[in-house]
Amino acid sequence: MGSSVIWFWFWFVALLILLPCLTVTAKQTYIVHMNHHHKPLSYATHHDWYSAHLQSLTSTSDSLLYTYTTAYNGFAASLDPDQAQSLRQSASVIGVYEESVYTLHTTRTPKFLGLDTELGLWTGHTPQELNQASQDVIIGVLDTGVWPESKSFDDSGMPDVPALWKGQCESGIDFKPSLCNKKLVGARSFSKGYHMASGNDPKKTIENMSPRDQDGHGTHTASTAAGSQVANASLLGYASGIARGMATRARVATYKVCWRTGCFGSDILAGMDRAIMDGVDVLSLSLGGGSVPYYRDTIAIGAFTAMEMGIFVSCSAGNSGPSKESLANMAPWIMTVGAGTLDRDFPAYASLGNGHRFTGVSLYSGQGMGAKPVALVYDKNSKSSGNLCLPGSLEPEFVRGKVVVCDRGINARIEKGAVVREAGGVGMILANTAATGEELVGDSHLIPAVAVGMKVGDLIREYVRSDSNPTAVLSFGGTVLNVRPSPVVAAFSSRGPNLVTPEILKPDVIGPGVNILAAWSEAVGPSGVQNDNRKTQFNIISGTSMSCPHISGLAALLKAAHPDWSPSAIKSALMTTAYTLDNMNSTLRDAAGGAFSTPWAHGSGHVDPHKALSPGLVYDISTQDYIAFLCSLDYTIEHVQAIVKRPGITCSRKFTDPGQLNYPSFSVLFGKSRVVRYTRELTNVGAAESVYDVAMDGPPTVGVTVKPSRLVFRNVGEKQQYTVTFVSKGGVNPMARNAFGSIIWNNAQHQVRSPIAYAWTQL
After folding, report:
1. 728 lies in a domain?
2. Residue 175: which CATH number?
3. What whole-number distance in Å separates Cα of residue 139 and Cα of residue 555?
4. Domain CATH for 49
5. Same-domain pairing of 644 and 676
């Protein structure tokens, strides 16, 4: 045997022996829940104590990413699985959890909601008085940052920042603290979780670590909540007019927690922690994850502390509709917001060679394709994904010089147009499928493009299939107002029932979330795709991300008008005054199929700010009530402590049923028992000597009894209870298993309405 062969086998065997020793287990971010009150006196701070815990496990000094002070008792750290398991053995450690990754839920709205000043008095307040009061309210927006130069953050005429405000504007490579002002009062960024997930690789973290918005989403949501009035705003001529937020005189503080690869739980918790300490009054989060128990839900945990400190928390419901059970952010102390349409549209037209002209929508603003019809194609080849216009799926020989029909789904709508353009196509008809039904969302396409609903899409697909020489020409109709019916529930808006706690009806309300104009980052084009070099100060986008800040801004107005109201009272006011009839006086419809919507899609209904300012009665909920609710779930006391974060928590008081929480809506589950009974408590925030009578509606399969049927409130602030008994009568359709109704407390001035969702879990 030659010497070279001997050496080969020597090194091969040596490598096999050494390989296990050389294996490096990848680290990841863990969030560690500590028993806060176990800190030995020898440590000056909890930070020192946490650091010592980590140093016993790892030799690296940079493992500790964040120490949480208010939103959570614990810290975030970079650990390998063995180190995480070692931490779990400590008596001072309650839990160690892998970090979750959350996603973003991506001018006419104030008028649509009745917020224009010409409408005169709000109950007891002129708009000017309300604006003045809202100058003391600060909305914290956790998102992708902010474009501070936007006119929506102009502070002209605003007084000094409230003295109690502790926030600041952080310095960054592209962000000077001086960019903040009396309107934009804070701007911070949190990126340690993002860096850790990227392996601390500079090539993967190409964004500047600063509060500046490189995405556009954060600027859009912040200006929707509280943007100043800006005249002559539009997206390349669309939706031209005055752009303004819901609370134009409220202040804004932004917390950048979302980056190109997502929003990381450790960063979100750090942002919430800091926002609470800074002194925000409202928290707005247009992002979310899946359905997990509350003690594993980063946002729910941080929001509980915020609620305890009087901070209203508004979150988007998610964009996973119309599938059932698709909601995010379901904790009862969070306002869960779905999306509806406005009475504004952007019509576009597809004229076919057979003489048919179909109406769709578009925000295309280029030169167009002229009036001459061109060939129309649809790549319905079962062996390819050309029908979806996925990247690389279209053959240039097939589409060059033609209009292409693309099925909606899988990839981004605007990306489909870019794929068509790259293959040589001159236009696109974006056709819905069953998943999105008749919902139409306008996009700022890079080529002439028209979006159409499923029914029209099917007709166009059939025309292409059956005609020997199909042609089309696309044209664009600008902006149209007073569209009927509106609002309509957006098909993308996530739906109930609530998977985490089925006894709590979610979403809570819907707000405007389709084709919303608001401020935009000038670092990115309106389409958001990489090769879009257009610049615009405003953009029109859709999502529950857009509806959430509408409610955040409205909550700021309610907080200004009623500074003594709790977050639960504000939430109740927005829910019990929401409407369920559209502008044709018909029950709200669902864009997914055109049928009537249900509370699993619209919750209590569409928000009505005027009525919410004077709701008459509210369902208030204390921190102790929420603890009793948590204790009614199948949680350990450690799980409850993870959320409540206070010593000595016991479950001496607990509900027999989570649905006993004093919630402004009802979710009734009929299981083994045919009878469900709940007691609710109403607080009078209207006039003294107010009398309310009850009215009910619902399916014939359920009997509803309310006692007493009349409530008399002698004083303002007085509380009265009522008990409602639901009895399943039988005769339920086994295929349906659910139904809906409502309870309304009425007098001449007010209607205090609570929706009811019924579900039969056993038949």
Report:
1. yes
2. 3.40.50.200
3. 9
4. 3.30.70.80
5. no
Q: Is 634 a catalytic residue?
A: no
* Residue of 136, 143, 345, 508 marked catalytic: 143
Instruction: Give the Cα separation of 348 and 360 in Å (integer).
Output: 5
Q: How many domains does the chain have?
A: 5
- d(Cα 382, Cα 359) in Å, to the nearest integer? 28
666-670 and 751-760 as β-strands: parallel, antiparallel, unpaired?
parallel
- Whether 338 and 381 map to the same domain: the answer is no
pLDDT at 374: 96
Q: Is the pLDDT of residue 284 over 60?
A: yes
pLDDT at res. 146? 98
Claim to verify: residue 290 and residue 378 sit in the same structural domain = no
Using the 3D structure, point to which of 476, 495, 528 is the last residue of a domain: 476
**Which residue in the list 53, 105, 195, 217 is annotated as catalytic?**
217
Q: What percent of the chain shows pLDDT beyond 90?
A: 73
pTM, full prediction: 0.92
614 labelled catalytic: no
Residue-level pLDDT at 761? 87
The dihedral sign for the CA sequence 666, 669, 675, 676: negative
- Is-contact 275 187, C-beta < 8 A? no
Q: Give the three-class secondary structure for 496.
A: coil
- Catalytic position from the list 223, 393, 545, 665: 545
List CB contacts of 409: < 8 A, sequence separation 6 or more. Answer: 388, 433, 435, 436
Q: Which pair of structure tokens corresponds to residue 374?
A: 């061109």
Full domain range(s) for residue 454: 347-476
**Which of 391-395, 433-437, 534-538 has the weakest average pLDDT?**
433-437
Distance, CA of 253 to CA of 145 (rounded, Å):
10
- Quickly state the pLDDT bin for 471 (edges 50, 70, 90): very high
**Confidence bin at 302 (pLDDT 50/70/90):** very high
Residue 23: the pLDDT is 42
For residues 584 and 710, membership in a common domain is answered with no
Ramachandran assignment for 187, one of left (phi > 0), alpha (psi -120 to 50 degrees), beta (any other)? beta
Number of helices (H), then strands (E), belonging to the chain: the values are: 18, 39
**Residues 404, 522 within the same domain:** no
Q: Report yes or no on 3 lying in a domain.
A: no
Distance from C-alpha of 198 to C-alpha of 205, rounded to nearest angstrom? 7
CB 504 within 8 A of CB 496: no
Q: How far apart are CA 567 and CA 754, in angstroms?
A: 18
Domain end marker among 556, 581, 613: 613
Closest CA to 530 of 80, 215, 191: 215
702 forms beta bridges with: 728
- Please report whether residue 18 resides in a domain: no
Angstrom distance (rounded) from CA 532 to CA 418: 10
Based on the domain organization, do 609 and 628 belong to the same domain? no
Residue 202 CA, distance from chain mean position:
30
**In this predicted structure, what is the pLDDT of residue 619?**
98
- 379-393 pLDDT tens trace: 887 667 889 999 999
The confidence band for 9, taking pLDDT boundaries of 50, 70 and 90, is low
Residue 559 maps to a domain:
yes
**Residue-level pLDDT at 527:** 85
Please, are residues 584 and 343 in contact by the beta-carbon 8 Å criterion? no
* 305 in the same domain as 187: yes
The pairing of beta strand 427-431 with beta strand 589-590? unpaired
Cis peptide before 700 (omega within 30 of 0): no
Q: What CATH number is attached to the domain comprising 459?
A: 3.50.30.30
Same domain, yes or no: 135 and 260: yes
Respond yes or no: is residue 750 known to be catalytic: no
CA angle 610, 612, 614 (to 5 degrees): 85
**How much is the average pLDDT of 167-175?**
95
